[in-house]
Amino acid sequence: MSKARKYDDRESSAKRGYGYKWQQAREGFLKKHPLCVDHESRGQVVAAKIVDHIVPHRGDMKLFWDRSNWQSLCKTCHDSHKQRIEKSGVDAGCNTNGMPIGKNHHWNL
Ligand SMILES: [Zn+2]
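A: This is the predicted complex of the input protein with zinc ion.
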């Protein structure tokens, strides 16, 4: 009798606990990164309220939980940011080295 691949129920429980887990994770992230990175890049200090996915995860859980894909934003920046990305498909922003910060920007592919 071949043992069937062990069913991994972690995924379903993670999905059930998704909301709570995300709340915990984002709160922890905001504690570590309390300032809006967008405002910070312009030398302004604004408290971040939102943990944003730099690359839209579109349901990709690996991308969703990848903390290197997270950034703290205030609501204003989050909203303008998302609108820009949705229009152009890439993040038009750049970091202090002048490199585009969008991971899906062609420079970063
Ligand atoms: Zn901001």
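Residues 15-108 form one domain. The helical segments are 10-16, 18-32, 37-41, 61-64, 75-88.
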